[in-house]
Amino acid sequence: MILAANFKTNHTRKSTLEYLETLDGFSNTCSEDSFYIFPPATALESSSAHITIGAQNAYPIESGSCTGEIGVAQLNEFSIKTVLIGHSERRHVLGESLDLIKKKYDFFKEQGFTIFFCIGEPLEVKEQGVDAVMAYIADQIEGIDLSYENLIVAYEPVWAIGTGKSATNEDIAQIHSKIKKICDKPLLYGGSVKEANFKDIVAIDGVDGVLVGTASWDVADYISMIKSAK
Ligand code: PGA
Questions:
Q1: Active-site amino acid positions
Q2: How far is the C-alpha of 183 from the C-alpha of 200, rounded, in Å?
Q3: Which helix (H) or strand (E) holds 34?
Q4: pTM for this one?
Q5: Which residue from 155, 193, 218 has its CB within 8 A of the most atoms of ligand 1, so it is best to mutate?
Q6: Helix, strand or coil for residue 161?
Q7: DSSP 89
Q8: pLDDT tens-place string over residues 32-65
Q9: How far is CA 92 from CA 89, 98, 134, in A?
Q10: Are 43 and 56 in contact (CB under 8 A)?
C-alpha cells in the first residue's frame, strides 16, 4: 500500500524532523508499505530507507529567476526525486492552469522524478453525474503521458479535500475503476481520509493507497490510523 502524507502549510523544520523520527520507527515494521511525506519547502529533508520525501510543489526550472519558487537545484540538495503535481489547492487556490501543470509534468518526467499527479472534480461537476466527472478528468489528463513509468495518480475530489466529507466507498470504487481503464498506474484516493474511513477505503478494489492531508499531521494519530487497517 502507498501511504502518502501531505503536510501542506503545516509543520516547521524542527517538528518535521521529530515527526520523521517517530514515523521511521513505525514504517520499518511495515515492509509491504511505501511511505511518502511531503513537508513544506522549508522542511525538506533527505529520504530515509523507509520514508521517501517529496516536494509539494516545484517550478519547472533547474534554477533561475522565479521569485518564491524552488527548482531542481534546491531539490537536489536533499536528493529529492519525488514531486506532487496538480494538487487541487495549486489548481484552484493558486490558480495553476492546465498548461502550467502539463509543463511541470513534462519537465519533471524528463528529470526522471516520481510524479504524484492529482486529479479530481469540483462539487458542481460531481452533481452533474459520473459522465461529467470523467469528462472533467479527461481534460485534466489531456496531454499528460500516462504511460510514464514513475507515475502515481491520486484521485482527489475537490469537494472532499479538507472538508471532513470523504467520497462514499461506492463513488471511490466507481471512479477508480473508470480511471484504471484509462491509466494502469498505482491509483491513490485522497480527500478527508481519516481513522474512521481509512480501513474501508484502502480495502476498495482499485485503491492502491491514500494521499492524506489533515489526518496525517499528528504522527501518533497517523500511525494509529494505519495500524487500524492491519
Ligand atoms: P485532506 O487533504 O486529507 O485534509 O482532505 C488531502 C489532500 O489535500 O491531499
A1: 87, 156
A2: 23
A3: strand 34-38
A4: 0.97
A5: 193
A6: coil
A7: I
A8: 999 999 999 999 999 999 999 999 999 999 999 9
A9: 5, 11, 18
A10: no
**In the chain, what are the domains?**
2-229 (3.20.20.70)
How many CA within 13 A on the CB side of residue 175?
Answer: 30
Q: How far is the CA of 163 from the centre of ligand 1 (A)?
A: 8
Cα 54 off chain centre by: 10
| Cα angle 38-5-9, degrees, rounded to a multiple of 5 | 55
C-alpha cell at 145: 503521458
Beta partners for 36? 4, 52
Q: Which residue has the cell 510524479?
A: 115
Per-residue pLDDT of 159-194, as tens digits, reads: 999 888 888 999 999 999 999 999 999 999 999 999
If we measure between CA atoms, which residue out of 130, 181, 180 comes closest to residue 153?
180
Q: How far is the CA of 156 from the centre of ligand 1 (A)?
A: 8
Cell numbers describing residue 72: 531542481
- H-type helices in 28-92, by residue range? 72-76, 88
Q: Quick count: other Cβ atoms within 10 Å of Cβ 138?
A: 11
Contacts of 168 (CB under 8 A, 6+ apart): none
